[in-house]
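The authors assume throughout that readers already know how a fold can be written as discrete tokens. For illustration, here is how one protein appears when written out as sequence plus structure tokens.
>
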Amino acid sequence: GVPTLREALLAVGAHRVMVDLPGSTDASVRKIVGTVRECGAGERAYYCASADAMLRVRAADPAAEIALTWTTLAPPRPELLAAVKPRWLNYRFGLVSRELTDRAHRDGLLVSAWTADTKRTMRRLIERGVDSITTNRIDTLHRLLANSPGRGGS
């Protein structure tokens, strides 16, 4: 079956976890953030979703690490960034360019891309400087990173 959030957080041990919150409500965010805290996972969990959801997370946990999901090439407004205080901008993989990652990095933000499931797309994202790739093909990404120059490979 599908594990509960508590079961999943306990199962992954010290590994980092992204908690995706599409369709969240004030009540669900409070419950999820509370569960993360109760499991002692606050330092290794980070949250992603739209601006509304991430504003809820920020209200529930001022110290939360946030990956603001952004679906356009126009950068988020400075006022939104100031309110959400994301560490990451989280983009659909097709939007990511070298210029986009360079701009985000200049602004002090990390860039994550979702959901890249082909080796070609993963390679392109790595070349474009992303900091994180969300994938259903962890084995493919692991092999690609292991064989990439400057990333532990040849």
